[in-house]
Amino acid sequence: MPAFAQKMVDLGFPGGPSARPLVTDYPGKGAMVLQRTTPPLLETPMRVFDGDVLTPNTSHYVRWHWGFPVEVDAAAFRLKVGGHVGKPLSLSLAELKKLPRFEIVAVNQCSGNSRGFFEPRVAGAQWGNGAMSNARWTGVRLRDVLKAAGVKPGAVQVRFSGLDAPAVEAAPDFAKSLAVDHALDGEVMIAWAMNGEDLPILNGFPLRLVVPGWFSTYWVKMLDSIEVLSAPDTGYWMAKAYLVPTAPGANVAPGTREFAREPINRMPPRSFVTSVADKAVVGWTPEMKVGGIAFGGDCGVQRVEVSGDGGASWRDARLGTDLGKYGFRRFDGVVPVARAGAVLMARCTNANGLAQGMVPNWNPGGYARNVVEPVRVRFS
Ligand SMILES: Nc1nc2c(c(=O)[nH]1)N[C@H]1C(S)=C(S)[C@@H](COP(=O)(O)O)O[C@H]1N2
Ligand SMILES: [Mo]
Fold this sequence. Notes:
The chain has helices spanning about 95, 140-150, 180-185, 235-240, and strands at about 10, 20-25, 30-35, 40-45, 60-65, 80-85, 90, 100-110, 130-140, 155-160, 175-180, 190-195, 195-200, 210, 225-230, 245, 260-265, 270-275, 280, 285-295, 300-305, 315, 320, 330-335, 340-350, 375-380. By secondary structure, the chain is mainly β. It has two domains: about 80-110 and about 135-265, Oxidoreductase, molybdopterin-binding domain (Sulfite Oxidase, Chain A, domain 2, Alpha-Beta Complex); about 270-380, Immunoglobulin-like, CATH 2.60.40. The strands form six sheets. The chain has a five-stranded antiparallel β-sheet with strand order 1-2-3-4-5, with no helix packed on it. A five-stranded mixed β-sheet has the order 7-6-15-10-11. Strands 8, 9, 12, 13 and 14 form a five-stranded antiparallel β-sheet that branches. The protein is globular, with a radius of gyration of 21 Å. Bound molecules: ligand MTE and molybdenum atom. The site of molybdenum atom has 6 residues, from loops. One of its GO terms (molecular function) is sulfite oxidase activity. Pfam families: Mo-co_dimer, Oxidored_molyb. InterPro entries: Ig_E-set, MoCF_OxRdtse_dimer, Mopterin_OxRdtase_euk, OxRdtase_Mopterin-bd_dom, OxRdtase_Mopterin-bd_sf. Keywords: Metal-binding, Molybdenum, Oxidoreductase.
C-alpha cells in the first residue's frame, strides 16, 4: 500500500478539520493518532481505553515541546540534585535504585487534553480526548532523594528539567517547579518503569517525575536535573506558560482574555464512554450497556452515573477494581434508549464531592476541560 493511504481517525471537533492519520512508525509505540511529527505529539486512540485500565505502554500518549535524545546511555546517565541543599548529588541509575522502592497507579493527562473541542476554538495542539493514559509507575519517592541531599531551610520550590533542549538558544529550556512541601509529600516520585517495564524513550527513559493528581506538564521526562530553589521560579514555563484562570473550574466567559491567572495544578474529575464510539450505528435494544473509564483527578472516584438520553435521566454505574485513587476506574451501567437514537453520557463525582459539569469550561489556553462528553449513537 502506498504510504499516503493511511487509516484516518476523525476526532469529531466542532466546525473544523478533525481527521488525523493513525500511524505505527514511532519506537515502542503501536497505532497512535498523529498530531505532529517532530517533536512528536501522539494521541492514544479512544478504543484503547475500552481495554485494561492500565494503558499499555505501546499506546501511552506522547508529548514533547523540544527535541530530545533518541537514545540515552543508561550506564553514563546521572541525575543531579543541587541548588539550596547541604550535599549536592550526582546519582547513577544503580545508586538511585538502592533507595526504598515506591509504586503508584496514576493518570498522566496533558493540560490541553480535549483542546480541540473548545468553542470558540483556541490555539495550541488540537488534541481529542486521547492526551491521557494511566499506568503503574515504579521508582522512588522524590522525598527520599531530597532528604539524601538535605534541603536547606529557606527552600521554597524545587525545579525539574530533562535532557531535551530547545533548537535555538534563545528559546526557554523546559523546566517546571513544585512547592517544596508538595515535592516532599511522599507521593511525588521519580519513576523508571511504567507497568513493570523501562519507560519507553518517548515517555522519558530513563527517569521521569510523576506528580499524582496533577496535570502532566509537571511530569518532567528524561529527568536529569533537580534544583532546590530559595526563591520562586520565574522562568517561562512557570511564569508565562500553562497559566489558567484562578476562577473555579479554570473557567472564564468564552472570549475573555483578561483575568487573574495561576499555574495549572490539580486535575478535576473526568469520565469517558468507551463501550461504543461516538457516531456509531448499532442494532437497537430497549436498554443498552454503557461502559467506560473515569478518574477523580486529585482524589478518587466516588460515583459514576450514566445516561442514555443526553442527561435528562441518570442511573448509577457499577465501579470496577480500584487500583488507587489517582488511576482510571472502569465503570459499567445499563440505560434505556429511545428507538430514534441515543446520546450516551457518563458523569463522575470525585471523592471530594466535585462532579463534572454539563456546560464546558473555557479559557484561552484550552486547559483543564472536564465537561460531561456526549457519545451519539444511531440505531439501524
Ligand atoms: N522533559 C520534558 N518533560 C515533559 C515535557 C517536555 O516537553 N519535556 N512535556 C510535558 C507535558 S506538557 C506533557 S503533557 C507530558 C507528556 O508525557 P508523555 O509524553 O509521557 O505522555 O510530559 C511532560 N514532561
Ligand atoms: Mo501537556
